[in-house]
Amino acid sequence: MYRKVFSRDPTPGEVQLGLEFLSENQRIVSTEATEPQEATPASAWQYGFGALNPTTGYIENFVAFDYFAPLLQVAVGASGAVLPAWKHASLLPANDPGNAHLTAKGGAPGDDLEHAVIRRWVSPSKRKISIDGTLSHQMGPHGVRFDSSNGIRGWIVSSRVGTLANWTVRGLTVGTSLSGLSVEKGEIIDFVVDSHDDDESDGFRWAPVIEEVLESETTSPDKKPRRWSAEDDFQSPKVNPLDFWEQYAQVLLETNEFIFVD
After folding, report:
1. Biggest alpha carbon distance in the chain?
2. Mean pLDDT of the chain
3. Which of 53-57, 143-147, 171-175, 241-245 has the lowest mean pLDDT?
4. Nearest-CA neighbor of 202 among 121, 120, 138?
5. Taking a C-beta distance cutoff of 8 angstroms, is the pair 101, 108 a contact?
6. How many CB atoms are located within 10 Å of the residue 138 CB?
7. What's the rounded Cα separation, in Å, for the pair 214 and 161?
8. What φ, ψ does residue 78 adopt, rounded to 5°?
């Protein structure tokens, strides 16, 4: 590692420090391995883009976003805010879906119906649910007027029965609530937004909430319905921790000497 990072051999003292670092980290890892670990529950949400067929009402393909990185959003009259977002490239626009991305509260679609942005929920079991939320077409950066955009379209699509509802929104906010919806285990509910054939000023806010509907006749009064919030459940991908050799390599790469290696 020293030869690759610094182009030199380590001194005897550096070898000793490295051995102590590795030994201590291995001891910590061994101790943690014997302690019970609380499993992180798998998220019911997925994030990506795909093609929506308005004739059949189904999603024809789904491509998961593979980058979770900060995104600068500029609000009207403000300097902007950096928000974590799922997207298809470290910097937007991406080669394929353009500016398509999803944040905890909203996002923006790609340039056409083939690259609609999709917030996907997968039902963990058979149940009855209700959906609550509002879809809002946002002002563009620096006060772009809505007459430069024809708005967006929002869709709620089931993998089992197709389109459940859809809305066309231009500079407005609409309610997107559904009730009494029965879903099967593994059934997919997609919250889809497309650019309505015009990629100008298509930012939106839509953070739906799905709640389980309990049958009062057969349910214990102490049981609480499950709830899935797009905003509250929004999270980064699970990252495996570095092992002790990887940690040691990282230490060497953070040294002052490495910064000035010619």
Report:
1. 75
2. 85
3. 143-147
4. 138
5. yes
6. 21
7. 22
8. -135, 165
Amino acid residing at 190 = D
The phi and psi torsions of 102 (rounded to 5 degrees) equal: -135, 135
Name the band, by pLDDT with cuts 50, 70 and 90, for residue 113: confident
155 is written with which tokens?
Answer: 């869709």
135-192 pLDDT, tens digit each: 999 755 544 555 667 889 999 999 999 999 999 999 889 999 999 999 999 999 999 9
Q: Which amino acid is at 254?
A: E
Cα 122 to chain centroid distance, Å, stands at 14
- The per-residue pLDDT for range 200-239, each reduced to its tens digit, is 788 999 999 999 998 765 556 677 899 999 999 998 887 7
Amino acid at 187: E
| 52: Cα within 13 Å, side-chain hemisphere | 31
How far is 215 from 128, CA to CA, in rounded Å? 9
